[in-house]
Design brief:
single chain; 364 residues; alpha/beta; SH3 type barrels; Rossmann fold; Ribonucleotide Reductase Protein R1, domain 1; 3 domains; six-stranded mixed sheet; five-stranded antiparallel sheet; 13 strands
């Protein structure tokens, strides 16, 4: 894909290019001027051995990553932090079959990686919409949806909750919506679909218009790959059955992939995620505005909403106006966010002048 030197911006728009023509002044234009023989492309797949990028809806090509992104023999980690390498959805410059620059991101949906040491795991970059899939079976979990919403709002990504398996006997979308009322806060759309039925999947059309990049997240077995196939119009993603005893599925999607849809949108399908640890950069006020509003009426400004006298939040729980499970999750998430923020600050303290992800070129 490196033979043509003049980008086809109309083709790039089919995979989410944000401008109708060449980019205006700014870091992108500066990087492109610094690499006159390189061509912009979008990362559509990420693998251990390298990346697959595209400069149109079809075809895609494998490219090498810059040497500094690669892990030297005998080392557990590379020289560059994972958050500063490209992920699916990123825009890069490619020259002679290799990525030579990572273009600055607009946002990056991420979570904290498992383990004792602080690390961020990027899920997708340059995303407009997060489609949070949750099955109307044993997979339904308002507390997990609450965590997805926290991660999406932290990056100004618009969330849409999709309740899959609405065709199952006993599925009750109205009861699920009622259970999510406090979690969603009234500003998050909730759609109930049969992921195999194109007619019900069309309910997503308002959020999958031309130029939009959406990421599809949810636990294994939620029907993400089935929904992707239905939106695509043919079987591309592998699907599998869930276990009957607990509605859990296997990881049929093993890597993230950006897929152009017939609607003109791009959909990033992701492997199932059950552990969603905050990164420490989230604002609980974005997802718990109801509790924050109640807290304004507490007697003490530093009220922890546990056993303090005059706590308006606890009073709302006792009056049946606030779900105690929601308050418990608020306490849990507040502790996790605070702990992650401390670990992040400690990590950055050991890296003076560290740049944020995607803030500069990755040169050869």
């Amino acid at each position: 894909m490196h033979e043509r030197l003049n980008p086809d911006f109309d083709a790039l728009r089919g995979i989410g290019w944000p401008w109708p023509g060449a980019p205006g002044p700014g870091p992108w234009a500066e990087l492109m001027a610094a690499h006159p023989r390189a061509r912009p492309a979008r990362v559509v797949e990420q693998h251990r051995a390298g990346y697959v990028v595209a400069d149109a809806t079809e075809p895609a090509a494998s490219v090498e990553s810059p040497p500094q992104w690669q892990r030297p023999p005998g080392y557990r980690r590379g020289k560059v932090a994972p958050g500063e390498r490209a992920v699916v959805g990123d825009w890069v410059l490619v020259e002679d079959g290799r990525i030579v620059a990572l273009l600055p991101r607009r946002n990056a949906l991420k979570r904290a990686a498992a383990g004792e040491h602080y690390r961020q795991q990027l899920i997708a970059a340059n995303v407009d919409v997060a489609i949070i899939a949750c099955g109307l079976d044993g997979d339904f979990n308002p507390r997990r949806i609450e965590r997805y919403l926290l991660l999406a709002r932290a990056e100004d990504v618009r969330p849409v909750v999709v309740l899959t398996k609405a065709d199952l006997p006993g599925a009750d979308p109205d009861a699920a919506r009622a259970a999510l009322a406090d979690v969603l806060g009234g500003d998050v759309p909730v759609l109930a679909v049969n992921a195999r039925d194109p007619a019900t999947a069309q309910a997503l059309a308002p959020w999958l218009g031309p130029g939009v990049t959406a990421v599809l997240v949810g636990s294994s077995g939620a029907g993400k790959s089935t929904l992707t196939n239905t939106l695509l119009g043919h079987e591309r993603m592998k699907t599998g059955a869930v276990r009957g005893r607990d509605a859990r599925g296997r990881h049929t999607t093993t890597h993230r992939a950006l897929i152009p849809l017939p609607s003109g949108a791009c959909l990033i399908d992701t492997p199932g995620m059950r552990e969603l640890k905050p990164t420490g950069e989230e604002d609980l006020g974005d997802g718990f505005a109801d509790i924050e509003a109640l807290a304004a009426g507490c007697r003490f400004r530093d009220c922890r909403h546990q056993a303090e006298p005059g706590c308006a939040v606890r009073a709302a729980v006792e009056a049946g106006e606030l779900d105690p499970g929601r308050l418990a999750n608020y306490h849990k998430l507040r502790g996790e966010v605070a702990g992650a923020a401390d670990r992040l600050a400690s990590r950055l303290g050991h890296r003076p002048g560290a740049r944020g992800p995607g803030r500069g070129p990755a040169r050869r």
